Amino acid sequence: MSVEAANPNDPKATRQGAAWPVWVVSILFAVLYSYALWAGVGNAVGVPQGVWENYHLGISVIGWVILVFGVLLSPVVFVACLLLGRGRGLVARALIYAAGLCVVSAVFGSLIIAPTIVNFIA
Amino acid sequence: MGADAEDEALRWGGEADPTHVDSPTPDAAAADETGFAAGVSSPMLVVYGVFGGIYLLYTVGWLIIALRGSQTTGVPLNDIMLHLSTLLAVAAAPAWFIATLALAPTRRTWLRVAVLVLGILVLIPWGFVSGGGR
Question: How confident is the model at residue A3 (pLDDT cuts 50, 70, 90)?
Fold first, then answer.
């Protein structure tokens, strides 16, 4: 834990803002998180298109809820990890981001079975 | 290691032995060996053990989902990210468990238990539970 950039007990350090290694780690994870956002947007655009092409019907309310959830999931978890990591050392922040990324992957992976449970077609 | 050291391992040392838990002169080094468990009571260790078992089952569930495979899109970047996120999904349960125990203060037991319960709700391996849905 010797690479800790910010001392959690030092109020001066947190007031001055995060050190550059924290920014590097945050941006690196932001790029990784962005894939789930990209995939979520892709679903939100592609699924309604596909349903329209195949059935000439719209998306149900619950369908939209799941599609929007898929878009919001990654940014919401990222911000939550950012807030959880505030005032902690670099290693702790990286651990939180990594755990959050795993959770996003797992929950996003679970969304794949959503069409078998709920009806996407209005 | 001499014969003395080997003999040392075969003797219990009795009440006065500093490495004995109930010894009147507790050995600081011996106490440090259990450093991680310093503030964790025995019942809580059992609770963490039960949670650990559930998280282990979740990991196996996600592993089975991952081994079942998923459809490929044919787009290289998409497929790489799909494989990566499948791997990350398998790592989600251990990551949550380790992060909770490593980062939540030992004394705030209720917080740890609440976060571990939350993890069990969030990380349900739906693909395994439902059986279908790839």
Answer: very low
Domain count, chain A: 1
For chain A, say whether B75 makes contact (Cβ under 8 Å): no
Among all chains, which residue has been given the structure tokens 């319960």? Answer: B117
* The pair of three-digit structure tokens given for residue A99, joined into one six-digit string: 């755990």
Question: A13 or B38: which carries more pLDDT confidence?
Answer: B38
Tokens found for residue B132? 């279908």
Torsion of CA A101, A106, A111, A112, to 10 degrees: 110
Hey, are the CB atoms on A105 and B89 less than 8 Å from each other? yes
A8 in any annotated domain? no
Tokens linked to A90: 């670099």
The answer to whether residue A68 is domain-embedded is yes
Q: Residue B37 gets which letter from DSSP?
A: G
pLDDT tens-digit readout, A22-51: 889 999 999 999 989 998 998 889 888 888
pLDDT at B90: 93
Tokens 């739906």, residue located = B126
Domain ranges of chain B: 3-32, 41-130
Q: Which of B89, B122, B133 sits opposite A113 (nearest CB)?
A: B133
- Tell if the CB–CB gap between B88 and A105 is shorter than 8 Å: yes
Q: Are the beta carbons of B89 and A39 separated by less than 8 Å?
A: no
Is residue A95 assigned to a domain?
yes
The pLDDT of residue A1: 41
In a domain, A37, yes or no: yes
